[in-house]
Amino acid sequence: MKEYAFCPFCGAALQRGVIDHKERKHCPSCNFVDYKNPLPAVFAIVIRDRRLLLIKRGIAPKEGMWVCPSGIIESGETPEEACLRELKEETGVNGEIVKLVGVTRLEDEEIYGDVLVIGYLVKITDGELLCGDEAEDVKFFEIGRLPDSYVDLFREEIEGIQQSGL
Q: Rounded to two decimals, what is the model's pTM?
């Protein structure tokens, strides 16, 4: 995450001080405050025949790890739209949102810093599984036999969904 030393608006050196009950960098000249807010991301949980759809990441962050299709919400799109876009980009399939599974925070130390992750249960509507630009592989795994490298956000929720018969 970018750390400012100078104000991006007026160019003055930033100072540290307590603003809104937290220490933050701010500009004494124009009152800019360098708020550090989490980046919003989505996570598609696709379960079919009691198996979970995962991609093997081909790029950072988490390169080489198995994860659910996921990504950053872009400006102008809803979390649901972002979730379905990421599913299509990373796996080649289309889907529909079934329900919100949960919201959690994670710290991505590789690139993004603080991330707010919104997880959705998604049902595949059509398409054929293909590796997208960011994936080395894409396939379904039995939930009891997930790869050791699986990044387990929402693990309890996924196990609960699987046990409910999806």
A: 0.86
